[in-house]
């Protein structure tokens, strides 16, 4: 049975960033459901937009984004639609349009060879014995075991590590549904849709490499029905769907209180969405995945005795920022407040249409 300093479960942006930063200084085991390359194995359903905070993380790390993870086109505004009033506003946003799966594989490729990485792996059991974390996992149909001094859960919304550490913890969850269509719109656009008749969260669309992607976060109980209803309600607003090329779904967390941010205990740590580090107002999580990984890497490389307390303290600014996103979420999903904001026209950039666009 091999022993490691750190075992990381999940190599999304958070886990991959942490593994890269710990390489060389600590022995690291990393388990991931995705295959090493290609489109086999697990693929994260995601609109695929890199926010400014995520871009700043790469600047600090001295990393540049390769062209193979970029998607076409690059859009610098979000068309926000309030279905209750019919008001549409355009707000400037400096997102980078990416191929999410290619981005995840690229993040994994940055992990140095000194890290023991198992791709297409399934973690079956985790327990704590003799002040060590014991892991049982399967790779290529074979079962393996390992131990580690520190355990890190970077395993997203359905985190095994979070359930183990906080079995009674409840956090608001939605089912995220997303469909891909051949793009038939005359001009590409990125949209944010609020419709309190179908969801108390929000929906989105993005044009990407010839496809039109539409998705949203809906209640776990009747998500599919409300997703279909919303598509029908959007057709008068010139949303062009047609036949879906593929449909994706996953669970997404949406924190609603300070207690929803959980960082870990007993030499186990949570990063990214597993810790509840995701924006309640936009469901954007890559920024906070990268930030929390950077913070934890600094803590684990340090000489502090109580590492869990240190990680909790150093993520305070991040948690305060996410608390602000919870307040923003409550404003945007409350119809009368949202209506006042959009009617004010603050931040709105009018779009001038050419005669050709108007006829289309």
Give your account of this protein's structure.
- The protein is an alpha/beta fold and 360 residues long.
- The protein has ten helices and 16 strands.
- It has helices at residues 13-22, 52-61, 100-109, 160-165, 223-234, 286-301, 307-314, 316-332, 335-344, 355-359, and strands spanning 2-9, 28-31, 49-50, 77-82, 87-92, 96-97, 116-118, 121-129, 132-139, 142-153, 173-182, 190-194, 203-208, 211-218, 246-253, 268-270.
- The strands form three sheets. Strands 1, 2, 7, 8, 9, 10 and 16 form a seven-stranded mixed beta sheet that branches.
- Strand 4 and strand 5 (87-92) form a beta hairpin.
- It starts with a strand and ends with a helix.
- Mean pLDDT is 93; it is low at 354-360.
- Belongs to the CbrA family.
- InterPro entries: FAD-bd (IPR002938), FAD/NAD-bd_sf (IPR036188), Geranylgeranyl_reductase (IPR050407).
- Residues 4-165 form the FAD-binding domain.
User: What share of residues is helical?
Assistant: 25-40%
Q: Estimate the strand proportion.
A: 25-35%
The profile of the biggest β sheet is: 7 strands, mixed
Query: Roughly how many Å apart are the termini?
Result: 65 Å
Structural class: alpha/beta
Our Rg estimate from Cα atoms comes to 21 Å
**Globular, elongated, flat, extended or rod-shaped: what is the shape?**
globular
**Mean pLDDT figure:** 93
Q: How do the SSEs run, as a string of H and E?
A: EHEEHEEEHEEEEHEEEEHEEHHHHH
Count of β-strands: 16
Query: Low-confidence parts, pLDDT < 50 over ≥5 residues?
Result: 354-360
Total helical elements: 10
Family: Belongs to the CbrA family.
Organism: Phytobacter diazotrophicus
Protein name: Protein CbrA
Domain FAD-binding: 4-165
């Amino acid at each position: 049975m091999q022993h490691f300093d750190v075992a990381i479960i999940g190599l999304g942006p958070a886990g991959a960033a942490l593994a890269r930063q710990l390489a060389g200084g600590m022995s690291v085991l990393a388990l991931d459901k995705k295959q090493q390359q290609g489109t086999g194995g697990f693929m994260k359903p995601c609109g695929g937009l890199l926010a400014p905070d995520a871009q700043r993380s790469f600047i600090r790390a001295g990393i540049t984004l390769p062209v193979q993870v970029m998607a076409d086109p690059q859009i610098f505004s979000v068309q926000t639609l309030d279905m209750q009033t019919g008001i549409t506003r355009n707000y400037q946003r400096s997102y980078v349009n990416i191929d999410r799966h290619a981005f995840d594989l690229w993040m994994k490729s940055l992990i140095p060879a000194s890290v023991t990485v198992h791709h297409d792996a399934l973690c079956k059991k985790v327990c704590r014995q003799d002040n060590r974390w014991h892991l049982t996992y399967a790779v290529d149909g074979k079962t393996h075991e390992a131990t580690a001094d520190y355990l890190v859960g970077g395993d997203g919304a359905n985190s095994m590590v979070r359930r183990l550490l906080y079995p009674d913890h409840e956090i608001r969850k939605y089912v995220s549904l997303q469909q891909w269509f051949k793009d038939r719109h005359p001009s590409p656009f990125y949209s944010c849709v609020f419709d309190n008749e179908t969801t108390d969260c929000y929906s989105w669309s993005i044009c990407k490499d010839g496809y039109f992607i539409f998705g949203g976060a809906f209640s776990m109980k009747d998500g599919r029905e409300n997703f279909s209803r919303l598509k029908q309600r959007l057709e008068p607003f010139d949303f062009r769907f047609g036949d879906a090329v593929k449909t994706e779904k996953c669970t997404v967390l949406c924190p609603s209180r300070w207690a929803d941010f959980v960082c870990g205990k007993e030499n186990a740590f949570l990063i990214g969405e597993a810790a509840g580090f995701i924006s309640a107002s936009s469901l954007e999580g890559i920024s906070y995945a990268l930030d929390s990984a950077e913070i934890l890497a600094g803590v684990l490389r340090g000489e502090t005795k109580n590492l869990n307390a240190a990680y909790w303290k150093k993520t305070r600014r991040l948690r305060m920022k996410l608390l602000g996103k919870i307040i923003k979420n409550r404003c945007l999903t409350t119809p009368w407040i949202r209506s006042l904001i959009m009617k004010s026209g603050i931040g709105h950039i009018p779009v001038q249409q050419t005669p050709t666009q108007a006829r289309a």
